[in-house]
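Let's sit down with a protein and look at its sequence and fold side by side. We need material for that, and I hope you will provide a protein of your own picking. Once you have written the record down, we can walk along the chain together.

***
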Amino acid sequence: MKKLISSIVILLLSLLVLQCGKGEDGGGSDYPTPNPSPTITITASDFSVTIAENPAAGSVLGTVQANASSGSVSFAITSQSLAGAIAINASTGELTVANASLFDFETQSTLTAVVRASSGGSTDDATITITLTDVDENTGSSRNLWEGAIITFSKPNGGDPNDEVNQDRITDLVWITRGNNTPDGQGQIYNIVSESTASGSTSPAGTAWAQGTYATIDDLTFTSFRNAAPGQKPPNAVGVPMVLHLIEDDIYIEIKITSWAMKKQGGFAYDRRTAQ
């Protein structure tokens, strides 16, 4: 009898333990399993800016943009090509000039950095690119001036303008040449990248011209090649110092035409500056 009672007690205790081990939903616990915290997503945008060299210390360069699915975003510079050149506001992402002496076009024309945006353990990196433009020491101009060696380009009389040797390929966007046996107006120089022949009023396409030099560049008025030539006659430009502006490239080049063939022969020559 005692053995039967003991067995019944043991059975009841086992059932009680089993019931206590289950939650109200039968899931094995009286306490619900907490939901995991949602993962925060964050996206930071690359930043680029072009400024004149030698900015003032503390100058604002711009603001790195970043968005997080929740919470606030903090910013930090993780690397930069010239240590200590720039600083960032950890809360707003505003970039400023920290060491102005490092913003020297002649030493390094492009500065780069990596900014890390963070929120709730999630991060994303943004690439920072700062491009410097040269400031002429004499004029203080921040224009992009080519100040390299002077070269001579010439096209002989009758030279085929479609032949590469008869094209001054200044940049990918501007190749200067001149046609042969063409009437006045169409016999001037043109940009063979975007023109099949010259237009008296606009050629070379994508360029603007002015009489003068870098020393007075900020006072120059740029116009078409023909309008810039003395008396609006290209032959009169021989020997006259001029500045050529490549509009889309935004480059300025000192140039001087040294010869101009007449009677529809198509020859010409000039001296011009090159990039450094």
